Every structure is written in structure tokens, then in C-alpha cells.
Amino acid sequence: MSIFEKLESEVRSYSRGWPVVFDRAVGSHLYAEDGTPYLDFFAGAGALNYGHNNPILKQALLDYISRDGVTHALDMYTVAKRDLLQTLEDKILGPRELEYKVVFPGPGGANAVEAALKLARKVTGKESVINFTNAFHGMTLGALSVTGNSMKRSGAGIPLVHATPMPYDQYFDGAYPDFLYFERLLDDSGSGLNAPAAVIVETVQGEGGINAAGIEWLRGLSDLCQRHNILLIVDDVQMGCGRTGPFFSFEDAGIYPDMVCLSKSIGGYGLPLALTLIKPELDVWEPGEHNGTFRGINPAFVTAAEALRAYWSDDELEKSTRAKGERIGNTLQGIAESYPESNVLAKGRGFARGLEFESGEIAGKVCAAAFERGLLMETSGPDSEVAKLLPPLTLSDAEVDEGLGIIDASVKSVLGK
Q: Which InterPro entries match (predicted)?
């Protein structure tokens, strides 16, 4: 690994917790170059909902490349883009009675967020955006301005302005009614709150510590935005594409966001792709007003469309994710209850789950113990105090059992019971 340490920047992070060189990946497993298997409960930070080298998506990609299909096309019309847009309409938007235009903002989730923030300000003529405590929306300057983590924000090197944080659901442990502070500031002409263009929210905060907003809280937020003429942006970069069960993480709340940010698993295979979905009346862009060199990666269009056909033509994956997610949640709850003196808390929804410990040191030790036993999972939360699980949605029952067994043993090895 000396070449990595010699040439790669100190900014690297995941490799520090998993100090092996990986070579192959199939389904729910990564393999080190010496052949050692690791069950992957990380899944590319949620970018591999359908597993590594999914055979259905791989074949579609190989077929496309072998026939010399277009790879790079900026925003030109291509057969691959047409297929993706039509499949998105047929499999996702139409059945859910959602009407959105599609912006191709660039290759990553931060690109999708930046496009949404930029468009919200253009549409409303207002500068301020409301975000939430412990939010994470990306590492570019606009996305950082609506991110809560102080370490990540400090990396900007300049003041991050035009955004105001509000308490996320259960931030005060239910001591106050939902949106008491937010709505009071909106209604009080003396509050000093700049009139917001938009609110940006994650229905489950992944990097923020697997904080799952309640269904009623999300409905209340949507209602508040409608009453105050504030655009609602749902960042579904990590929690979309089935991570919580339904394709969009906001579906259970029955809300209709003005914009939706998608990336990570929207490409299906792990290839870079991001989409910003916007209500048609918000499509006020001038041609070329928002663009990027890599907003038209056609192989990602191919695997994205194939993933929608393969996994969203019926509700089988959604049912499986809900059922296995409940099973994972119940097991984590049992583990947490085994250590009442250690204040362990089970958190999450669907296939976004976590165990919160009293410190980042403990959570880090649990993840290290899991790695030693052949399981990949990372920490999250403001102090890295949550051991986070983001397995592929295609995880088998046997793999669920294997992973939960390793987690149980790892917690036991750290907490000493």
C-alpha cells in the first residue's frame, strides 16, 4: 500500500478504516487482492443498491459498449438518454402520478443539490435557504452552506452564507411542538429571518447519524412550505432509489416536493449520474444557464434505465426491503436493549439503519471489530457516534443473518458482554 501513502492525498478516509487493497466485487461482497471476502454493509455509501457488478446491469452495459454506443454526449439527444427518460416516466413518475421535468446537472449528488438551490433562487428571487441540524448535502460550497457538520463546513475556508439551520425532527426530543421555532420566525416581522426561497431536507439523515424524520413531521413541513410559499427540496441522493422501501423516500408521507435530488444508486451500477427533478412550472432555465461537461454519461443512462426495468416494474423489491429492513431494525433494537448501561440506540428506516453509541470512539471500535470479522460498515453522525448500515437492497436472507451476527459479536467485543 506504499504507493497510496506516497502519492494519495491525506484527505482519503475510508481506506484508513479498511486497510486492505480490494480487487473484485460481486453482489454483496468485496474481495481483497489476497481473496479475503468482506460482506459489504456500506454499498458505496448507498450508491450500490443493487449490489456490485449486478449481472443484469452488467450485461446491458457490456452490450452497449460492445456496439460502440455513445459514451460522452454533453446534453445532446441520444438513444440511451431517450430510453432512460421514457423508462423513468413509465416505471417511476407515471405510476406515482408525479409530474417532473428532469435536469441533468452533472455526475454527482452535490451537482443535483447545487442545481436545486440555484434554481430555487432564480425562480423566487430570494437568496436564503432553510436547512436542518445535522444535514449533509455535499462538499461543494453551495451544498456545504446547507450542511450541518462543522468539520466539513470548515473545509470551505470562507463564510458559508445565505442559509439558516432549523431543528430537525426530534432535535429537542419532542419537548416542543414541530416547527414551533421555524414558524414563529416566519410569522414575526421582527425575527430577522430572511424570507426563504426554499427548504432542503433529507427524510432520513444518513451522514448526520441515521436520523429518520417522522411521517407526520414530513407532512407538516410540506404543509408549512405551501402556506408560506416556500419551495420544498427533498435530497434523496442517499435515501432514494428504494433505500427506505419505496422508490422515493418521501412516498410514505404522501407529499409532492417541488424538487427532488437523485444520484448514487440512480445510475444502478455505480457509474456517475445525478438528476434534479423539478415541477414543470419551475423550469425557467435559459439554454446553457446550468451545464457541465459530464452531465451526459450515456453508459450510466443505460444501467439506470435497466435498473428501473429490472427492479421497479413491480413492488417486489420494495416489499423485500421493507420486510428485511424491519428484521434488521428489530435485531438492532435487541442488541441495543442488551446494553442498557451503555445507552445504545437503534435508529433508522428500511435499509438505512444504525446503532448510536455514547461516543465516536466506541462506534469506531465496533466498526473496526466488524472489519476484522469480515464486514464493512462505517460511522456517521456529528461525532461519528453511529455505526451505520447501508447494505445492498439485493441482500439475501443468509447475508442478513451473517451481517447481523457479525454486528452482534462486534458490539459484544467492544462493550464486553
A: Aminotrans_3, Aminotrans_3_PPA_site, Dat, Ectoine_EctB, PyrdxlP-dep_Trfase, PyrdxlP-dep_Trfase_major, PyrdxlP-dep_Trfase_small
